[in-house]
Amino acid sequence: MKKIIVLISVVFVTGSMFAQKTDNALQGYFEEQGDKTLYHSFNFDGNGRMVGGMSNGQYFTRNDSLIVFPDKDVFIFKIKKNKLIGISNWVKDGVWIRKKNDNEVNNRKNPVASQKKAALLAGYYDKIKNITGFDALLSDDLLITSESFCNQGLAKACLNTFGLKMMKYTPGVLSGPEKVKEKKLKPHPELIQLSKRIISLGDTEGYNVLGSYYYLLGLREKAFAVWSEGEKHGDAASTLSKGLIDFGEEMDKEVKKSNNNNKKKK
Questions:
Q1: Contacts of 52 (CB under 8 A, 6+ apart)
Q2: Numbers of helices and strands, H then E, in the chain
Q3: pTM for this one?
Q4: Distance between CA atoms of residues 203 and 20, nearest Å
Q5: Cα(165)–Cα(159) distance, integer angstroms
Q6: pLDDT band with cut points at 50, 70 and 90 for residue 174
Q7: pLDDT tops 50 at residue 109
Q8: 188/169 Cα distance (integer angstroms)
Q9: What is the CATH number of domain 22-99?
Q10: Torsion over CA: 53, 65, 76, 97 (sign)
């Protein structure tokens, strides 16, 4: 009887392990059929990272499911041969077909290390998927979990830790971010170290979040210097941040100029 119980236990455990196979080997360019979503294509590097417009995005697969962290949200797909079928918000009902493309890359060099990275991201997802909205702000659960996974070497968790701690160390960031610079706050050393940690883990988004933090504090020159460094290292988010700020500042100048001209006419 004991042997039967042990045998059943082994079969159950083995089956569970097989059923929960986690990886990030999905590779290639997938193009949307139709226009049901805002996302024309997705490009996966075979090593857990997105390529192109979502260059800071990360992903893992579990059996026939694909979970993508593009930025602040999570996209969930079902994998059917060479198709991705969207089932979560933002990608729901969309269908993407695998196609050859000159921009696709394959960065899978060390499958064992890649699988470990995928398992870490999957573990983090399982821990935080039910922490949403105000729960994330009102409790310390997300911060505690994020710090734990950041310490284990997950850059995505470090990014979330940075955001949560920035809110903690920057009074008024939610209620009046445009007024934060008036407080003359000094950059918090822990946030600077966190950004370096993110970069050391291979995620160039560390440049963007630090630059954005500096700009929030009113340290424009420091912000642009960090974003420029991010650009040199191929960080698309830093390039976008610089461009948006430059555009916004130019628009403000034009509005101010127009208002002054109108006053002179009167």
A1: 41, 43, 103
A2: 9, 8
A3: 0.84
A4: 27
A5: 10
A6: confident
A7: yes
A8: 7
A9: 2.40.128
A10: positive
